[in-house]
Fold:
Amino acid sequence: MIKRKLVLEDGTVLIGKGFGSNKEISGEVVFNTGMTGYQEIITDPSYCGQIVTLTYPLIGNYGINRDDFETVAPFINGLIVKEYSEYPSNFRSVETIDSFLKAHDIPGLAGIDTRKLTKIIRKAGTMRGYLANIEVPKEEIMERLAATPISHDQVKQTSTTKPYIVPGRGYRIVLVDFGMKHGILRELTKRNCHVTVVPYNYPAENILRLKPDGIMLTNGPGDPQDVPEAIEMIRKVVPTIPIFGICLGHQLLALACGAETEKMKFGHRGGNHPVKDLVNEKSFLTSQNHGYAVKMSSLKNTDLTLTQIALNDNSVEGIKHKVYPAFSVQYHPESSPGPEDSNYLFDDFLTLIEGHIANREEEVYA
Structure:
């Protein structure tokens, strides 16, 4: 097994054993605190361009199966673990995590102190890093890191390029794909929705021509301000069509309604983040994966009202429009992976659509 190292842009060097691909690559180094669900994490498009550190000490013990993918091909740049299992044991397992990473040309690093790395990120904030073979000098790696431009097209990389339909007999939903997790699509099809998936840059005029009952804004990677065409589209459709935004979709809805977003120090990534619903006075656990958040103070001068907050740091977790039928949450109610406490939000979305249609019919026949 080859030796491999991670070099952070602050000069920290962590040496371990390589697995997966032998590729050398840079990326934003982040950590996820989930105890399970590594397959869903690895295949979540929101991690596009990132090197993901999993804090749970043993990864790969139940292998890779055919059921838990969140996208067809992963978009992560690298994976860092304390220990990975070479011999998984699970009746659903079809291959090892090592062979899966090799097949998708993704390098892995094992055997380092992942607690130390996590503490560095928590203290200094998210930073870029470089996975390289042990022989490459640190100085050369630092030069490579400095010369690597920061990517601003992650949504373009992960979104579908053409519209497609997932047929159903229920409400007609336009799902705007910013890097969609399949879990979101599963929840809509489970409720018999007729879903039309469209690219991130699909114009408002084209969406309105589809005459949808509702619009779903999905999760996705990167900075929401890198997607100005989506912000403009949301601004045009929000007065007329019920909207439900998740994660990046939540941030884009906020920007379209005049709020602001900001980069967090190290983000929220894991399956145990407590959130409080300010409307119903209830708290629940959520699955999260984001490095940006809606700025709380910026909600004051908008038609948005705060509906939910994170109990760990009081950041914005949910908003609702005061005038139009639109709401969003920062976390992942499709729960892939994670607790299913907030799965009811998909039913709330359909209830919102039902009410909107009823009101529209009343106006027609008034």
Q: What stands out?
A: The chain has two domains: 3-149, 155-365. The radius of gyration is 21 Å. Residues 193 and 263 are 34 Å apart (CA to CA). The first helix runs from residue 38 to 42.
